[in-house]
């Protein structure tokens, strides 16, 4: 093996430097995108790289830049929930699409137990990833505070409250829910119930707020018995729908805060002999495959879930590159997609 030649005859940084007639440091600066290189030297290095077919060693570059070239997508939910809820899969698709043309590796991490949370904390403290995308944020989840203490660049999917200080990408949940309830009221429905998500999540409280605003504007607010609490699961939607029918057998409309819960509600309505939409109009939230494939197809509030994933990845990459501590808050718009159920 000749001096400066890598194993297997691969060109090395030294060989590029010799061909270009510059120092090793100049080649390194060109490879790492540094602006502190003359145009003449940069052109010589780039020509040498092309002639030799030099491929930079990513691991060495990352080490030199104190980087791992990896980001973690952290979802504090079970595998069952991940597989059953299209929302998570769309987020994963959006994130992976945005990272596809970068050198970043995507590590999917599920957090189901305190031990797994502790292990993630150790992983993060050891700087094994450059940043974190955190999905499904609950109000008292300790992970965001841990990430803040460790100074790990982080972007949340959603918020813990209206006072959120970390970077986040969210949807207009209040406006989307309000448009759903207003649509039901516009159809002439008057006993309009709602199935909420878990209220320790800001997203669920926002969707309840949107529903409440519409009901108050129509002079029909104040009846808390029309509110049943779910958990964003199909079984939660079924249980909530059964409770609503016990309290209000004659209800004529339901807004469920997710398509998955709306699917569970639809099943119970059918079991109880109610026709959708003739007897009970039904609307979900997400505009997922669940809504499109239901029978009848569900009217649903569309949030751009895949675009949320892409935007989260873009914001995180900007934070990793800049390290300036500036937080970004992005809220994407929603739209009501009208189908047969309402």
UniProtKB/TrEMBL annotation:
Domain (HTH lacI-type): residue spans on this chain: 11-65
The keyword ATP-binding is annotated on this UniProt entry: no
Coiled coil, from the record: none
SUPFAM superfamilies (alphabetical): lambda repressor-like DNA-binding domains (SSF47413), Periplasmic binding protein-like I (SSF53822)
UniProt keyword annotation of Phosphoprotein present: no
PROSITE patterns tied to this protein: HTH_LACI_2
Superkingdom of the source species: Bacteria
One GO molecular-function entry: DNA-binding transcription factor activity
Keywords: DNA-binding, Transcription, Transcription regulation
Family annotation (InterPro entries): HTH_LacI, LacI/GalR-like_sensor, Lambda_DNA-bd_dom_sf, Peripla_BP_I
Protein name: LacI family transcriptional regulator
Source species: Streptomyces griseofuscus
